[in-house]
Amino acid sequence: MASTTAETGSLKLVSVLDLNEASVLHGQLTNMRGKDLSIDASGVERVGVQCVQVLMAAANAWEEDKKTFVFDKVSDAFGKSMQLIGINIDHLLAKEIQQ
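^ that's the sequence the OP posted. Answer follows.
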């Protein structure tokens, strides 16, 4: 959640990304817009579709801004939930964790 520099930010996602968390996540991402962003999803245990929508909209916004938007770490639960929903995030994964 804390920015490391003026141009780079990092965000650690909470363990439960449900409907209640979607507006919080949106606010956090809005505050970080304009910076390269690294997301840590290693602690995520459950993901709701609303938060997936927020994350994918953010990925599109960062792409339009020509800024980096990458998942540095993802939990198995996060990765499997994305697959079940039908979202391919391979292009958003850090090079170190791509399979």
